[in-house]
Amino acid sequence: MTKSPNSVSSSYKTHLSSEDKPWIEIQERVRYSETDKMGVAHNKNYLEWFELGRTEFCRQKGIPYKQIEQKGYYLVVGEAFCRYRKPLRYDEEFIIRIVLEQVAPKKVVFKYALLTKEERKIVASGYTVHVVTNARAEVCSLPPEILEKIKA
Amino acid sequence: MTKSPNSVSSSYKTHLSSEDKPWIEIQERVRYSETDKMGVAHNKNYLEWFELGRTEFCRQKGIPYKQIEQKGYYLVVGEAFCRYRKPLRYDEEFIIRIVLEQVAPKKVVFKYALLTKEERKIVASGYTVHVVTNARAEVCSLPPEILEKIKA
Amino acid sequence: MTKSPNSVSSSYKTHLSSEDKPWIEIQERVRYSETDKMGVAHNKNYLEWFELGRTEFCRQKGIPYKQIEQKGYYLVVGEAFCRYRKPLRYDEEFIIRIVLEQVAPKKVVFKYALLTKEERKIVASGYTVHVVTNARAEVCSLPPEILEKIKA
Amino acid sequence: MTKSPNSVSSSYKTHLSSEDKPWIEIQERVRYSETDKMGVAHNKNYLEWFELGRTEFCRQKGIPYKQIEQKGYYLVVGEAFCRYRKPLRYDEEFIIRIVLEQVAPKKVVFKYALLTKEERKIVASGYTVHVVTNARAEVCSLPPEILEKIKA
Fold it and tell me: Of A23, B93, C151, D76, which residue is the least packed, with the fewest Cβ within 10 Å?
């Protein structure tokens, strides 16, 4: 039923590791509504936090994601993976680190790490694979002016 | 930052494929609040739907997840993966199919497929890897009476 | 900062009480992700459950809300109120009862009660006031064919 | 089914209006996952934003809500009301203004206004009524040391 995320895995070997790539970081805090009865942040929120990271990544590259959509392009999530290592608790501050792992006209891969604020211990890590589409949900290519900014 | 989910991938080769395993299915409908401005269900909801599937799987095996927690055991999510193939729209009915891919005293792996209701086309697929812990978040083993029921 | 919901309150005195109006009921179950660290369903989910109720109300009246939007009309939420009486817990089944309290071409008011499944005790109650708009978010009137069905 | 929120409404007349009370403000941004297919923030998120406001209010008063719970007290939501005036869109920055409208050992009322960032136009307003309970969900009184800080 599931496909192993080969494209991403293989890129670990053949390309520079993402640790060598520039990243950006943002800081967030766990909301009360994001906890569950286990007393920790619920697993689905991590995908929301990854998305916050992408939004800030694009903004810092000078091309807010809102503008990408206004120009008629969508980075549709094709795959999402998260590995949960340590729980996050209500009101805890944490860091979201975002790396652009791979970018091609029709495909973008982001990688993420969540870190504790003080000790910078890894709380979670993951990636999302995006397919570029137009407003009619057809696969298409990002125009050069957007590609250049994201890669910059 | 991310680890390729080897344990799961390798199990595809050495074990019977999950297509041969018994599955259970439940039916759900996309809530308005689960859509986003792209007009389709937001990616984080799939992890919530996987969880609904696990809840029903345990119930049908005669050991509701609520009871597992009441006995002091937790199936903490260690990894989650989802591949999104087709969008789901507001009010659309769909099927969640759940398979118990792997079960050991300290680890449980579920696999999921989301299908359109009528044509049974695959909308999404994924898996979650769970670590068994006690109420103090220490890794422990599921007792035989729970293991037997889940495996049955 | 807040306006007391006079229109709704006054309708209690001058109109038939909603207890005399026909209602519809649907059954739901608390999702794990809907609980918070207090161990009970988080307050924001009640607004989502109210919405599930509206969706089913319209469907049972023969005019699914999806179709209302496809015809270019939106029932935008202008006010929402909830009174929380008893907590709901993970996996608990409950009833959502929906009443059409008031309907006019440009305004619709729904009232809701959440009940325990077995003993029918009130868990929560509330209302939502909706303004009718077109796709450009301008206030407009529902056409007679939709009004008739909702009122029926 | 619903009770008109008299206690709050009547307090408007007999007490100083909340506009005279000190407020605190925080700034937030609409997340992509908080939008719905109408293209604007979904109504349930406003209750989550009110909660973010309460969390910051308590922190700024020197008694983080996390500590209140650690001491064994819970501010359980008994009523929530929101009036939605203008939509909020993806990535839009907005202000949450929080006022402590009423405080008694067993009951706390917060009022909220959401404002556009630049022009300070009111986007939404509302209130929440809280009942003080202990860990066994029994109504109880906040101890003086917490009361003093919240009122300060």
Answer: C151
